[in-house]
Structures are given as structure tokens and as C-alpha cells.
Specification:
- The chain is α+β, with helices and mostly antiparallel strands.
- It has 3 domains: 16-130; 136-287 and 359-433, Neuraminidase; 298-351, no CATH class.
- The chain has 6 helices and 18 strands.
- The protein has helices at residues 16-66, 73-130, 376-389, 391-395, 402-413, 416-432, and strands spanning 137-143, 149-155, 158-167, 178-181, 189-190, 193-196, 202-205, 209-210, 224-228, 233-237, 256-258, 264-267, 274-278, 283-286, 299-301, 307-310, 318-322, 327-331.
- A 4-stranded antiparallel beta sheet has the order 1-2-3-4, with no helix packed on it. A 4-stranded antiparallel beta sheet has the order 6-7-9-10, with no helix packed on it.
- Helix 1 runs antiparallel to helix 2 and helix 5 (402-413) runs antiparallel to helix 6 (416-432).
Length: 433
């Protein structure tokens, strides 16, 4: 039976300051793009003036050398040379002055236009706040172990530092839930490695695009941080280090997987290095490297604890990671007829694990298992309600969800202790995926 989609509650904010910041971002982008264009024009113009001066001086030198060397003809040649040099120098200074004047005018216009945009934004923000028309553009979302949904806000195609949480109502319904602004992250990022850890915290690392340098750029950042949903805090952690003890300069859009023992396996988008983060110790450990760089790959945890991936570089080969060897091994090739990698961009789609009868020994939930102030009974009802309310979640894994539903019904018929264990396991699987 086909699933259905339902609209979640609006995350409209009546914060005038927030609405103005969102709108003013357009003015800032206009100003930065405009000034960058003017600066490029100035540099091109100055280069053109330099080339013109060089060509003019070369012409004067060549004319002086080819001129006669007997008087009074030589006097005329010398006079011609000095006049030509003067004309060349005058050309150079006038051309540069015109370049600077033009670009200065353009930059002033850029600033004025951005100021006008900000004034319009202020007026528009008042209107939108009054009618509650200010929403956060959705970005990457995560299902936390307390049943809430954490979502990054995006703006103008980039990830921002702002994050939102959708909290279900007391019956566990997201449709009747409410959005709340959480603490801002230290870095705004887009296309990054991430995982919900066993203790309920969110780990994010890298980013193909980020504002770590102050403005959004394709910088392949190496910045990592952890969000604690109970304390509502973001804490930065150091990136992995290579064998020489040097921090990875780039992480970027790294591939990753949460291992069965609760540790976090992550690659480096720039090379074949991989590392494991231990949440309990807060440390990184290098593993044996891959045979190919892991950029753009999708890593999937298998039931036996291995991590499998189709190589984007060197496809149609595949590799697998084993905790036993703490390293990567070349696996079977993907048949050419079904090669899943797009060759031009070296990208691949998502990988999912189909239903299984006995899953990996996923870590049990920890201190963040319960939403602050939420009774334990509500917690269990929220888990059951979420399972009923989101059948499409299982459809994202496979169309055959009858086995999962049957196991859930069987679990609800078992004694309460076993039932609670099964519910916690189902929630851990959901958080891992």
C-alpha cells in the first residue's frame, strides 16, 4: 500500500532580528559579489594598462634603435625617444587612474545598493513578522534519540549556523509538535559527515562548503563539533591527525559510518586516509587506509559489522572495512551493467541496508534517551506512535516492510521488559539510519 505525505507544522518565527538577518543576507551577498566583480575589473584594467605601457615602451625602444646615429638626425631620434617614453608613461598613469576611478564608483554603488536592500529588508521584516511569513529553509535533518528532530537551517543554497528542533507532542505526534530554535553551531556547513552517537549527541565533521573562513566558500573545511541536546551546546573537537601527527587540513564532504560498537568511522575527501572517533574518550585513531580516496562515497554498515562501499574513484571496484583487521580490503567489483557511479562527477547515490532477521549489535541508548521533562511512559508511547506515524521511513529502505511490521507487532505482544528492550533497539536502529 502506498504511503502518504503530510505537512509538518510551520517553523515560522516572529523574531524580528532573525527575519532581518535572513533578509539582510541578500544585501550582504549582493555587496560581496558586486565588490568582488569590481575588484576583478580593476585588476584586469590595471593589467591591460601595464601591457599597454610595456608595448608602448618596446615600440619606442625599437624605433630608437632603428633610427640613424649621425647628427643632426640622431638628435631627432633622441627627442623622439624621450617624447615617446613620456607619452607611454602618461598613458600608463591615465589608464590606471581611469581604472581606479571606475571601480571606485562601482564599489560605492555596490555599498549603496546593499544599504537600500537592508532598509527594504527592515520594512519587509516588520510585515513578515506581523503575518508570520518568516520560515527557516530546511537543510539536513536528524532523528535524535529522544524522539525529536534536529534540522539545520539553509539560506541562499548554503548551510547556516542556525539549527531548529521539532519536538513531538505528549502523544509522540510530529504533526502536532512544535519547532524550537536551539543554540547556533560554531560553523555553518553544507555536505558534511555526521552521525547520531549512542549517547544521543550529534557529531558533524567537515563540509564541502562552509563559512569557517568568515564567508561561505568551497573550502573543504576540517572543522568538527558535537551538539549536546540536553545541554543545548556545540563543542568543537580537533580533527583527525595523520601518521606524522599533523591535523588533516581538509575533511570536506567525507564519507562516514557509525560502527556497531558505537564508534564513528570517517574518511577524508582528499585522500585515502580514514580514522575512527571514540565518543567515550573523545579521541581519533587512524585506521588502515583505503585503496582509493573516499570522496563522494556512501558507506553502509552490514550485519556482520563490516562497512561496505562502492568506490567512486577506481570504480567498479568496491572495498570493505573490518574492525577485526582495522583496515580496508578490496571486495568484489560491481557488474559493469549496473555500475552505480556517475563517471563524470565521480558521485554515487545513497546506500541502504535491506531488512534483516538479525541486525548488528547496535549500541544501546544512553543519557539522552529521554527528552528533558518527558515521563518515561510518554517516551514509550512516542516511540510506538512514531513507528505508526512514519511507515514511509521503512519504505526508504525497502518496499517489503511486512517483516518489520510483523516483528514490531510480535514485540508488542511480549512481556513488558522484552518489549521495552525491543523498542529501544528499534529506536537505536532508527537513529543509526
Amino acid at each position: 500500500m502506498a504511503g502518504t505525505w503530510k505537512s509538518l507544522p510551520s517553523n515560522c518565527s516572529r523574531s524580528l532580528a532573525l527575519r532581518f538577518v535572513r533578509c539582510a543576507e541578500f544585501g550582504r551577498v549582493i555587496r560581496e559579489v558586486c565588490i568582488a566583480w569590481a575588484t576583478q575589473v580593476e585588476q584586469t584594467c590595471a593589467k591591460w594598462a601595464d601591457q599597454g605601457h610595456s608595448a608602448c615602451a618596446a615600440w619606442a625602444d625599437r624605433g630608437h634603435k632603428e633610427c640613424c646615429d649621425w647628427a643632426p638626425c640622431s638628435w631627432f631620434c633622441d627627442a623622439f625617444y624621450w617624447v615617446a617614453q613620456w607619452v607611454c608613461d602618461a598613458w600608463y598613469w591615465v589608464a590606471n587612474w581611469v581604472c581606479v576611478l571606475f571601480t571606485t564608483i562601482v564599489k560605492v554603488v555596490c555599498v549603496v545598493v546593499s544599504f537600500i536592500v537592508e532598509v527594504v529588508c527592515l520594512l519587509w521584516s516588520i510585515i513578515t513578522v506581523f503575518f508570520c511569513l518568516s520560515w527557516a529553509d530546511g537543510g539536513t535533518a536528524f532523528l535524535l534519540t529522544d524522539g525529536s528532530v534536529l534540522m539545520q537551517e539553509c539560506l541562499l543554497g548554503y548551510g547556516t549556523r542556525r539549527w531548529w528542533k521539532l519536538v513531538p507532542d505528549q502523544n509522540g505526534s510530529y504533526l502536532s509538535g512544535s519547532w524550537h530554535r536551539v543554540h547556533d553551531a560554531n560553523v555553518g556547513r553544507k555536505y558534511f559527515a555526521s552521525a547520531i552517537l549512542a549517547d544521543g549527541r550529534l557529531l558533524v565533521c567537515g563540509g564541502e562548503y562552509s563559512d569557517a573562513s568568515g564567508a561561505n566558500a568551497q573550502d573543504e573545511t576540517n572543522r568538527c563539533e558535537i551538539y549536546d541536546p540536553v545541554a543545548d551546546t556545540w563543542t568543537e573537537i580537533a580533527p583527525p591527525k595523520d601518521g606524522a601527527g599533523t591535523s588533516w587540513p581538509e575533511i570536506g564532504d567525507a564519507a562516514c559510518a557509525l560502527l556497531a560498537d558505537g564508534r564513528f568511522l570517517m574518511g577524508n575527501s582528499s585522500n585515502s586516509q580514514t580514522a575512527i572517533f571514540n565518543p567515550a574518550a573523545g579521541t581519533w585513531t587512524l585506521t588502515g587506509g583505503k585503496n582509493q580516496r573516499s570522496s563522494e562515497e556512501t558507506w553502509v554498515l552490514l550485519t556482520n559489522g563490516w562497512v561496505i562501499t562502492a568506490n567512486c574513484f577506481g570504480h567498479p571496484a568496491s572495498e570493505r572495512f573490518s574492525l577485526t583487521t582495522n583496515g580496508w580490503t578490496v571486495d568484489a567489483n560491481i557488474p559493469n551493467a549496473s555500475d552505480v557511479v556517475e563517471d563524470a562527477s565521480k558521485e554515487v547515490g545513497p546506500g541502504v541496508l535491506l531488512p534483516w532477521s538479525a541486525g548488528p549489535a547496535l549500541p544501546k541508548s544512553g543519557k539522552h534517551d529521554r527528552r528533558p521533562g518527558m515521563p518515561a511512559g510518554h517516551r514509550e508511547r512516542a516511540v510506538r506512535h512514531r513507528a505508526r506515524e512514519q511507515p514511509e521511513r521503512r519504505l526508504s529502505v525497502t518496499h517489503d516492510v511486512s517483516g518489520i511490521r510483523r516483528r514490531r507487532r510480535n514485540a508488542e505482544r511480549r512481556p513488558s521488559e522484552q518489549q521495552s528492550s525491543d523498542l529501544r533497539r528499534a529506536d537505536a536502529v532508527a537513529a543509526h539510519r
